[in-house]
């Protein structure tokens, strides 16, 4: 009987010791993946310095130094840590300010309105939720409020224009001229929440039969070399009266 009691006590002692070791291990692990700036578990947009310290990219926005050791930040992401964070079955959205609970395969983070985005006019960075306020207060002139179309008589003057749609979406439109005979307009969306409708843009040249329509991929990280662009010839039709400009109507619509 005494032997049985002794064995049970030894078993309990070993279990307590194992729990203490596990608790110590988890505490050390948690400390190693805690951002030194926000004191929270690092988000998926994690960056590391050349010494291996990790932090949220938004917490060191505008800096190239590690907040822990002051050494340079590395361009190499800690892949193992990112994969570990992504493998969690359920987690809070990684963007500060967002309280959404998302699953492993949820694409919420792609469109989250708290995701950090950049103003293409001045370089300001902040949550997509604050972009409209920034544009209206700092860049009121270039902002186009489109309900649902606008007309221009000179596509060559288009460089970078923020477009605010009636639905609340913000689209950046950029014009480029890779060749003198071609104009390319590219479009991409700022993160403002996942859309529930498809978005299209249509360009019509007045006084001609030229009309082109394309779907806009709402992913803010879209590669505009492969999609989200309109290419059109840069010329003036012969039948256009002298002194007149060729009007182009650009229309955005959802389906």
Outline the biggest β-sheet: 5 strands, mixed
Shape: elongated
Low-confidence spans: none
Mean pLDDT: 80
- Content-based structural category: alpha+beta
Q: What is the helical fraction, as a range of percent?
A: 10-25%
Order of adjacent strands in the largest pleated sheet: 7-9-10-11-14
What is the number of E strands? 15
List key phrases describing it.
Herpes Virus-1; 2 domains; 4 helices; elongated; 15 strands; 4-stranded antiparallel β-sheet
Describe the structure.
By secondary structure, the protein is of the alpha+beta class. It has 2 domains: 19-106, Herpes Virus-1 (2-Layer Sandwich), CATH 3.30.40.10; 116-254, Apoptosis, Tumor Necrosis Factor Receptor Associated Protein 2, Chain A. Helix content is 20%, strand content 29%. The chain has 4 helices and 15 strands. It has helices at residues 2-32, 79-87, 108-111, 131-138, and strands at 46-48, 54-56, 90-92, 101-103, 116-118, 125-127, 144-146, 149-152, 160-165, 170-179, 182-189, 199-205, 211-216, 229-233, 248-254. Strands 7-9-10-11-14 form a 5-stranded mixed beta sheet, covered by helices on one side. It has a 4-stranded antiparallel beta sheet with strand order 8-15-12-13, with no helix packed on it. A two-stranded antiparallel ribbon has the order 1-2. A hairpin with a 4-residue loop joins strand 9 (160-165) and strand 10 (170-179). The longest helix has 31 residues, at 2-32. The protein is elongated. The chain starts with a helix and ends with a strand.
């Amino acid at each position: 009987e005494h032997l049985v009691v002794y064995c049970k006590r030894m078993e309990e002692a070993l279990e307590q010791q194992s729990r203490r070791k596990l608790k110590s291990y988890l505490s050390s692990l948690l400390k190693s993946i805690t951002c030194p700036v926000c004191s929270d578990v690092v988000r998926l947009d994690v960056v590391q310095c050349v010494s291996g310290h990790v932090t949220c990219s938004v917490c060191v926005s505008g800096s190239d130094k590690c907040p822990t050791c002051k050494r340079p930040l590395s361009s190499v992401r800690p892949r193992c840590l990112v994969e570990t964070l992504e493998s969690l079955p359920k987690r809070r959205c990684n963007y500060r300010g967002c309280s959404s609970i998302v699953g492993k395969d949820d694409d919420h983070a792609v469109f989250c309105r708290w995701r950090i985005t950049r103003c293409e006019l001045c370089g300001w960075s902040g949550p997509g939720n604050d972009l409209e306020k920034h544009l209206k207060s700092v860049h009121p002139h270039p902002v186009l409020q489109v309900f649902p179309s606008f007309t221009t008589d000179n596509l060559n003057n288009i460089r970078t224009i923020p477009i605010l749609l009636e639905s609340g979406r913000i689209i950046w439109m950029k014009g480029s001229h890779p060749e003198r005979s071609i104009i390319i307009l590219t479009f991409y969306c700022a993160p403002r929440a996942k859309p529930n409708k498809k978005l299209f843009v249509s360009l019509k040249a007045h006084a001609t039969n030229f009309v082109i329509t394309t779907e806009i991929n709402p992913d803010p990280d879209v590669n505009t070399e492969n999609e989200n662009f309109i290419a059109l010839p840069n010329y003036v039709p012969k039948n256009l009266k002298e002194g007149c400009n060729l009007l182009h109507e650009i229309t955005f619509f959802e389906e």
